[in-house]
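Our consortium's second objective concerns turning raw sequence data into structural hypotheses that experimental partners can test. To show how far this objective has progressed, the report includes one record in full. It was chosen at random from the queue rather than selected for favorable results. The single chain below, 220 residues long, was entered without modification.
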Amino acid sequence: MTIPNFVRYQPLLFAEQKMFARIDEFYSLMDHRRTVRDFSNRMVDRQLIDQIIRIASTAPSGAHKQPWTFCIVSNPEIKKQIREAAEKEEYENYHGRMPQEWLDDLAPLGTDWQKPFLETAPYLIVVFKKSYDLVNGQKRKNYYVQESVGLACGFLIAAIHYAGLVCLTHTPSPMNFLQEILKRPENEKPYLLIPLGFAPDTVSVPALNRKTLDEIAVYY
């Protein structure tokens, strides 16, 4: 049995006033975050993307397996292929696959099957989940894959916003075409498609309100 190897952890320690100041500042920052479907074609520095991915990789994962792969796409031809495949699936979704209740819920957001942002955004990050790894040709199971990759995506979205960029969580269904276009191995399955970049000079988002604390939290 492997003997655990531990190192001393140095937690962040702040005076209470500083704690409140930091958490209030972070809340204000994140409350400003919005999903954006319009992007400037202004390019984003590759090193900024690298650091955003590193931040996402700090998320916790089952047995520290880190069961994710982030595919970063900037090639115009590949983005075009992804858009065409996504729009094909989305057209079917909006014209028969989605029940009317779903369409009614989407109506206030003004979405439809057309996804031009998949080509306009300078980068697409395609997140893949790995149910198992291959180590020396042998399958090694990963644990809590769905939860782990979801947490990493949360860190990723927060980092994108913190950097001053905007993004969209896009889930065309089914998403198998992403595995085919990007030629990913069998143990990787598409989880989320995230266009990101700078917001254009003028951009609009739906007028929405978040649920209040009383609506989302129950203390015992």
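The partners drew two points from this record. The first strand starts at residue 68 and ends at 73. The chain has a mean pLDDT of 95. Both points have been shared with the crystallography group to help prioritize constructs.
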